[in-house]
Amino acid sequence: MTTIADSQVELAAPTGREEAWRFTPLRQLRGIHEQLNDPSQISIDVDAASGVSFTWADTATQAPTSGPTDWASSIARAATTRTAVVTIARDVEVDSPTVLAVTGGGIENPQVGHIVINAEPFSKATIVIDHGGSSTYSENVDINVGDGAQVTVLMVQTWSDDTVHLSRQHAVVGRDATFRSFVASFGGQVVRIVPTVEYTAPGGSAELLGAFFADAGQHLEHRSLVDHSVPHCRSNVMYKGALKGDPEAGAAGVAHTVWVGDVIIRAAAIGTETYEVNRNLVLTDAARADSVPNLEIETGEIAGAGHASATGRFDDEQLFYLQSRGIPADVATRLVVRGFFADVINRLNVPDWQLRLANIIDAELGLEGIEEGSDDE
Amino acid sequence: MSVLEIRDLHVSVDAEGGAREILRGVDLTVKSGETHAIMGPNGSGKSTLAYSIAGHPKYTITSGTVTLDGEDVLAMTVDERARAGMFLAMQYPVEVPGVSVSNFLRTSVTAIRGEAPKLRTWVKEMKGAMDALSMDPAFAERNVNEGFSGGEKKRHEILQMELLQPKIAILDETDSGLDVDALKVVSEGVNRVAASGEVGVLLITHYTRILRYIRPDFVHVFVDGRIVAEGGAELADELEAHGYDQYVKAAASA
Ligand SMILES: Nc1ncnc2c1ncn2[C@@H]1O[C@H](COP(=O)(O)OP(=O)(O)O)[C@@H](O)[C@H]1O
Ligand SMILES: [Mg+2]
Predict the structure, then answer these.
(1) pTM value?
(2) What are the Cα distances from residue A240, in Å, to A183, A260, B50, B252?
(3) Can you tell me whether residue A151 is helix, strand or coil?
(4) How far is the centre of ligand 2, averaged over its atoms, from the C-alpha of B43 (Å)?
(5) Given A316, A324, A373, which is nearest B107 (Cβ)?
(6) How far apart are the first and last CA of chain A?
């Protein structure tokens, strides 16, 4: 039997007929899904919080990738020569985020990057991978969450309009460990991010969160995979997206988002508890949101499994209600959209970055800095 | 002193097979300090009247005028109408996920008053208003109308009316779905606002029940998109005794 996970190990370049690539506009990828010609190493500037150590390492010395890999991530890994290694030592708890600023070096010559996050047992930290600029970029991120460790990894994409970004992010979650991934995609022409999780021992918990906002001409794709192969682990996937195309601009004006949420519960994974949800808010015509929850269950002894997916238009009744209380249309729109994203953003639990994401969403709406009047004394 | 004047208002909606006229010439004047009851059978167009005055985009005004102190209400956007002093307590208040009651109320009060209330006095003001309507303070942290019971939704509407202090308040079937206790609490809220003498109240209802707690100065019988009879509070007693039948029959044969 072919499982979801097996289907994500690729031995040849995708053609577009594969399940995993059927939504992706391959022609816009500038070839980085097939081969990488003389790529350069992407620029990463690290601001490590005290208690977190950072080094550059020779990629060849790093452990081979575990978990599912696609062709694009395999060739990117093979072409990467230096790895950014972030380590949180055993028992060390760090509150303030460590920020890796990944800056594109232009779209002409492809770039590659590899980031490793090692959270040793019982450590606690937040790592932000903040992507910006113009790039044609293929990326691998490997996260090891040691036993009892608690790690949050926030990936933010505020790329320029011309960027192509392929990224595979794999987390290995230890005994009683807690992993939280938050993927926030706003910029870029094509962004395709594949966050995957496996567990090594019982008691692990993973939360895969995401917020995205696509406007005219953008393709933002997120494909999560949670592979439950050991007993008594939990996973919770929540992705929320907004789409704002340009109905006047024909095919070039379409905003396209894709969410595919794969969860596999293997025969050994008794006592698994999993839930996944994707909600999309369509703000205009010229928008296409593909949403595919996919649950494969090989054991009857689970604690719970469910999924939900819904795509709905912006509700004019909400706008009318708020306006009928004197709230101007732009402020009301912002309230509704912020409200839509509120539950997922509140789960991030990193206040400075929650505020930043809210502000980015306001900017995507074209409604940053408008009078709100709820400023305090 | 404010005056809402509705003159020969005709309103239609888009329906299958084209526009359908719902309001067929409504005339009504409401002044501050007055309480008017509009009573009529289901489907007679009462909500259409309320929504049209508030500016709901579903309804098309085909002719007639609505003015507030001489200003053309129909030329205003929905939020401008509210800032001019109009308020509509809705029959079916709308859920706004992810927006807390306290954030909503403060944003709304800020828009209506033109400046943000000072945080400390605001919290006191909101708590006081909620207390007067027997609302649990935890209510402020819930999302607007999400998971509210029918009674909670109506109290929340009256809470907004008390905080926003409109010139003209239209209450669309605020009494429907309320048990007696909730009906009393809500009626007291309306009476508090009316007692100021600075608000004109237009109470839309299907039943006479709420009129035991709120005494109208004028009663208008609404049938088939227009007012067919008018009188004082005694007209409500007559409707209580005899129902709408004679008016519906008269309208049908007209
Ligand atoms: N959007 C609409 N499309 C078609 N008919 C409508 C629409 N809205 C209201 N109506 C009709 O208009 C009439 C009046 O409705 P409404 O104003 O809600 O009455 P009431 O509030 O008195 O019960 C009803 O017959 C109703 O079916
Ligand atoms: Mg009605």
Answers:
(1) 0.90
(2) 10, 12, 35, 53
(3) strand
(4) 7
(5) A373
(6) 63
User: Has the ipTM of the complex gone over 0.85?
Assistant: yes
What letter would DSSP give residue B42? T
- CA–CA distance, B140 with B106 (Å, rounded to integer): 11
How far is B107 from chain A, CA to nearest CA, in Å? 6
- The C-alpha atoms of residue B239 and residue B247 are separated, in whole angstroms, by 10
Note the pLDDT of residue A373: 47
Model pLDDT for residues B17-37, shown as the tens digit of each residue: 899 999 999 999 999 999 999
Q: With a cut of 70, say whether residue A4 has pLDDT above it.
A: no
Ligand 1 contact, B43 CB (< 6 A)? yes
| Residue A285 to residues A147, A207, A251, A278, Cα–Cα distance (Å) | 47, 32, 12, 20
Nearest of A366, A373, A365, A338 to residue A354 by alpha carbon? A338
Q: Which ligand lies nearest to the CA atom of residue B223 in the structure? A: 1
In this predicted model, what pLDDT tens digit does every residue of B101-160 receive, in sequence order? 999 999 999 999 999 999 899 999 999 999 999 999 999 999 999 999 999 999 999 999
Q: What is the pLDDT of residue B251?
A: 84
Determine the Cα–Cα distance for residues A153 and A149; give it in Å rounded to an integer: 13
What does the domain layout of chain A look like in residue ranges? 4-313, 315-377
Which chain B residue has its CA at the smallest distance from A343's CA? B98
**Distance in angstroms (rounded) separating the CA atoms of residues B26 and A40:** 74
Among candidates B57, B79, B103 on the partner chain, residue whose Cβ is nearest the Cβ of A328: B79
Does the CB atom of residue B106 touch ligand 1 within 6 A? Answer: no
